[in-house]
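INFO  loader      accepted 1 record
INFO  loader      residues=456
INFO  predictor   begin
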Amino acid sequence: MSELLISIGLLVVIAILVIVIILLLSNLGVFFTKIAQGTTAFITAGDSLKEILPNIGGYKMSDQIDLESQHWLIPEKDRDRQIAALFHDSMRGTKKFQKWLWKKFGVKFVSWFWPQIRVHKFDIRKGGRRRIEARNEVGPDAPLRSRVVDSPEKTVVDSLLFLAPRPVYMEGVELAGDNSKINLLLLPVFRQVIPSLPVFNLKGDFFTLIDAAIEAAVVDFFAKHRVAVYKGGKDNPKAGELANDYYDSAQSETQETSPLTYAHWLKLTKAGEGSPLEKSLRHLNFSREYVAKLKRNGGATKLVNYIKSDLIHGDDAADIPVGNVAQMIPSGIVPRFGYALVSFRIVEWEPHKSTEPLALALLAKETEFHNAEGVRQKAYGERDAKLATAVGDSGRVNQVMTSFVDKRVDPNVAAEVIKTMLRTENIRDSKVTTYVEGGTSASVMVPASPPTQPTK
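INFO  predictor   done
INFO  writer      dumping tokens
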């Protein structure tokens, strides 16, 4: 019995030692690897891609391929199917143990033939990692550019982020309506779709290319976007003011189209999925032509469904605008870079130095308008109060007259009563202390001063 217990104890110790050794090896990337949550690792044999290992909840690598024979990272709600896809080519007899290691420690067996088969490392280049400093950290008067800083982390990495926020600073973006300029601090967030593309096709140098594409698209937006403004000449105080973020021909009787001006930009919707800038950029994930080709491919229905459900704004893809944007991303952001734009916001903006006089003038104009509006509203309030009082008095007099008529009071007597009532009400806020009716004049009774005491 004691020998059995000793044997069991030795087996337990050996099992623990094996697990400890596996964890140590995984930290070194030898035979095993540890993949951080929310990232994708790549296994290479020599210089060739052998396997893609995502550790992303709710996603797996697709069985289907796109037009370039690349596998996508697609949604998978079933946890068992997700794990099965990760271990589909594991050695027989080891799958249960490997799945247990994965669930418990996030560790995946790579190969016995290390270092020939190993985790791939790649360089995302200087500037590949950026972050935004809080405004209170850089100071209230610090230039907008100073809020974007490079992260101190190393640029050589062994995994690819699933979600990648990418701060972009743009200076002197011109508005077509009045040639004014603004500086923008943008925060687009990208989602990994084709993991192999940025790492192996673009060799890790993809963020600067994505930045350039986003910047070109933003410049194109400010040059081409048209808003709805109120029609009218000098007699219409709202003429030329922003009526809507988009022009609708159904409102053509009162509105017309106009390029963006600085005054329009001040009132344009800048946040949320309904903002014109985000809608314009989200359409760039895929071109209409690319989606049509993928549909005709026939064997990529899951990829097409993923595009429609998650990766384009609306039910259909749009045409990529001609010009610089079309040259950079002819088929869209995803087929070009492997990442999809999933959210976008303007963190902060400011007028460009050349536009500061216009900005100050518009601010002064708005201030004067609101001050004048306050005076007008006060006058309207006083007018409405007087009108309400007059209406109330009229109703009360009518009510009294109706009562007199119902009681058959002599009209002349009723008129005298009403006249007296109105007279007394007209002087109720005065300092009159005695009111005398009749032909004699009324006197204001002022209390006499007390007699002075004779001096002794």
